[in-house]
Design brief:
By secondary structure, the chain is α+β, with helices and mostly antiparallel strands. It folds into 2 domains: 72 residues, no CATH class; 99 residues, no CATH class. The chain contains 8 helices and 6 strands. The strands form 2 sheets. A 4-stranded antiparallel sheet has the order 1-2-3-4, covered by helices on one side. Strands 5-6 form a two-stranded antiparallel ribbon. Helix 2 runs parallel beside helix 5 and helix 6 packs antiparallel against helix 7. The chain starts with a strand and ends in a 6-residue tail after the last strand.
Length: 208
């Protein structure tokens, strides 16, 4: 148990007003047949040595369980889904619309509902491929106000430009590494020293 805060209030355990400790407790539970570990937050009454959960804490602890499960099975956590949406500056409703999902789907995935693997794959694709986002945006252009469309388009276009530059740099580095390898650069130098290619046919020794 780790103390993360202290507040003065009426304790719902002993019904007396005193300093309540806000604590973090490492716990484990079984969710969908898998044992997961997570950090839960509680109010703690030192007089009675008991924990209490507010409605907000119950909600946060439930999401913590779901995120622990997501990590265990290789799914995006709710925070990672929020980060993808934030990267494009798109609302929960509009991202659901863009992907052709129900209006509240992203809202649920950023909260208490665990996404399936098919939807998780699509979210990862959106995260890694701004060009695909632009294609979907163009396809669904009539579903957005012009100002909203332009906002999302500008952001995605900038991300695409950054990713294109990164891919190009990686490709150049890979090509250079290949040419410097024995099978690449050195092997090609030996071949070029022996032959001049005319019509794809090597010259004989007298012509070299």
């Amino acid at each position: 148990m780790k103390i993360i805060d202290r507040i003065m209030k009426t304790c719902l355990i002993c019904m007396n007003e005193h300093e309540i400790l806000i604590v973090r407790v490492h716990e484990s539970t079984v969710f969908k047949g898998i044992t997961v570990e997570y950090d839960a937050v509680y109010e703690y009454c030192d007089d009675y040595n008991e924990f209490n959960s507010t409605e907000e804490m119950i909600s946060l602890n439930d999401i913590a369980v779901k995120n622990a499960y997501r990590k265990a099975v290789g799914l995006l956590t709710s925070d990672e889904i929020k980060a993808i949406r934030s990267k494009y500056g798109i609302s929960q409703f509009d991202l659901s619309t863009l992907l052709g999902w129900g209006a509240k789907t992203i809202t649920r995935y950023e909260g208490h509902q665990v996404q399936d693997f098919a939807h998780d794959t699509i979210l990862r694709k959106i995260d890694s491929d701004p060009q695909w986002f632009l294609i979907l945006l163009e396809t669904n252009k009539n579903k957005f106000l012009e100002a909203t469309y332009q906002k999302y388009f500008s952001t995605a276009l900038k991300l695409f430009g950054e990713s294109y530059d990164l891919y190009r740099q990686i490709a150049v580095k890979a090509r250079r590494a290949w040419f410097k390898s024995n099978k690449g650069y050195s092997g090609m130098k030996r071949k070029c020293a022996r032959f001049r290619i005319i019509g794809q046919r090597p010259l004989n020794k007298q012509q070299i």
